[in-house]
Amino acid sequence: MTELKYDDKGLIPVVVQDWLTNEVLMVAWANAEAVDLMKETGYTHFWSRSRQKMWKKGEESGHVQKIKSIQTDCDADTLLVRVEQTGVACHTGTPSCFNEVVYGELEETMAILPELRRVIEDRHENPSEESYTCKLFADETRMCKKVIEEAGEFALAVKDKDVDEMAWELADLIYHTMVAIEKTGLPMEEVYRKLWERAQ
Q1: I need a surface site. Which of 6, 12, 96, 136 has the fewest CB within 10 A?
Q2: Crossing angle, helix 163-184 and helix 140-160, to 10 degrees?
Q3: Model confidence at 174, in pLDDT bands (50, 70, 90)?
Q4: What H or E segment, with its residue span, contains residue 135?
Q5: In the predicted model, is pLDDT for residue 1 greater than 80?
């Protein structure tokens, strides 16, 4: 493995992402011992600059981060750690520490996908008679038909070269597919593995 480059305090920044959505959850610092602990235990460990001590993420809250992968950047001075997050990542109680928009807008970014996934999960765990998503969960045949219907409408929009209609229909297809994924419990790691095979 490439030798990591720590700063003059013996630390390296660690960007933590959700393994499923690639949502950035937090950024922390690690020293060599913390990096070794991550590889040995499979859970994130960091060095607290304020407390001057080692800490395991979630050691008090239970919101641990199970590591899926660790990568380094081209300069070997930053780590990217993809994790399966238990609970929330931020001490404020939010899924991610990155919540405040200081420039631009999120509406044209992939930030909606993890947010939509959380909404769909909540509908599954807390059913409501008024919720369209819950009605799909309750009627598997209808749910499956909607996936087929939206796929067909997207294909027709592609044929018509109608950009606005393509965007609308693809959004519908993504949403209904996400509902089916949540309902069936399809393990996304299997899907990602198949995509990796197709990329070879």
Answers
A1: 6
A2: 160
A3: very high
A4: helix 132-138
A5: no
